[in-house]
Amino acid sequence: MFRKIFVITVLVFMVSVFFALPVLSESLSGKVEVNSWWTAGGEAEGLNALIKIYESKYPDIEFINATVAGGAGTNAKAVFKTRMLGGDPPDTFQVHAGHELIDTWVIPGYMQPLTDIYESEGWTESMPQGVLDIVSYQGDYWSVPVNIHRSNVLWFNKSIFNKYNITPPRTFSEFFDVCDELKTKGVVPFVMGTKDGWEAAHVFESVLLGKLGTNDYNGLWTGGVKWSDPRVTDALETFAKIASYLNTDHSALTWDEAGQYLLKEKGAMMIMGDWTNGWFMSVGFEDYGWAPPPNNDGIFLALSDSFALPKGCKNQENVIAWLKVLGSKEGQYSFNKAKGSIPARTDIDISDYNDYLKSAAKDWQKDAISPSVVHGAAASEGWTTEYKDVITLFISKPDVSYAQKALVTAAEEYLEK
């Protein structure tokens, strides 16, 4: 009798444990729609690496890769903004960590916090405090960062520099001396593509940093430094001079199309974020070097791509599974190696990453950090848009007084909100 009771007791216990277990994540099914703007070069390869991991873990989920090309995310943001405001949110969408997410979607109440996932996955221990601060608001975490990008990098064609015995310019004075020398050699000194309306503003960030330094550049976005400051005037005048050395077809080219000048040894330098490193890798170009832009030594102009969880999304469990892949060691390692960025986590072995990424990881640990405005970290989306519009107009028609007044007005408007 005792034996019979024991067996029955064990069976009851096993059944109760079985039904108490959570459903295995691998048993998820249905769909997940992921909205992003990763459509070219290394960024597309990075996304594909994440999709491959996700599909291997969740083979019964149909992955809908809802990418929208163009404009450093401008077109993609317009798509999901329409859907969010219309009550039909995508399951998840790419968003720059920082003010772009917090001001636009968190504060108005469109997003769900991800604090429980951060704690269950151990991300509060594996991500540095600086990253956690960027994705935080009122005690909760709101998106999962997949990377850290550096916005302020001067890329150059090594063969051109070696041919004319040129070293990367460290100051604006050296930069213009190099430009003058290259111009006499028939080489376009500095290239830019401004077709998508954000690239000029991106480059101008580095000029502002070079003129104001980390603390005062940051102060432009917090109100601690006025946009009427004479150093802003100096930055605009310097940018106008830079424009005189540009490729004449810049308004017809995207940033990567302008990068073809370096690939073909027709142009020498460009300032662009380190997704350029991923693009160079994707097209098999190895003849490139990198350095801080003029007067940017020791400053890391940072941004982060992340994904969030909208309220009312149709496939929430599948989104959470996607977010866990993004924050995992495997996901961050594979994505960043392809995309040309560094992981948001600090516990990942990147010994087989290329030399640029290793150098960026070291700089991230020691440099002063400033937030990129063009890429959503420094200011609200509305303010960022006005800043971009002013500088895009400036590069085609350099009017220092008009541009500075417009920047002052924009700052006053958004700092009052």
Q: Determine the N-to-C terminus distance.
A: 77 Å
**Radius of gyration, rounded?**
24 Å
The CATH class designation of the largest domain is Alpha Beta
Low-confidence stretches: 1-24
What global shape is seen? globular
Here the CATH topology of the largest domain equals D-Maltodextrin-Binding Protein, domain 2
Which architecture of the largest domain does the CATH hierarchy give at level 2?
3-Layer(aba) Sandwich
Query: Can you give the helix content as a percent range?
Result: 40-55%
Structural notes for this entry:
The protein is an alpha/beta fold and 417 residues long. The protein folds into 2 domains: 29-149 and 304-366, Periplasmic binding protein-like II (D-Maltodextrin-Binding Protein, domain 2, 3-Layer(aba) Sandwich), CATH 3.40.190.10; 150-302 and 372-415, D-Maltodextrin-Binding Protein, domain 2, CATH 3.40.190. It has helices at residues 2-20, 41-57, 74-85, 99-106, 115-121, 123-126, 129-134, 158-163, 172-184, 199-222, 230-243, 255-263, 275-282, 316-327, 329-339, 355-366, 381-396, 400-415, and strands spanning 30-36, 61-67, 92-96, 136-137, 140-141, 143-145, 149-150, 154-157, 188-190, 267-271, 288-291, 299-303, 305-308, 368-371. The strands form 4 sheets. The chain has a 5-stranded mixed β-sheet, with helices on both faces. The termini are far apart. The relative contact order is 0.18.
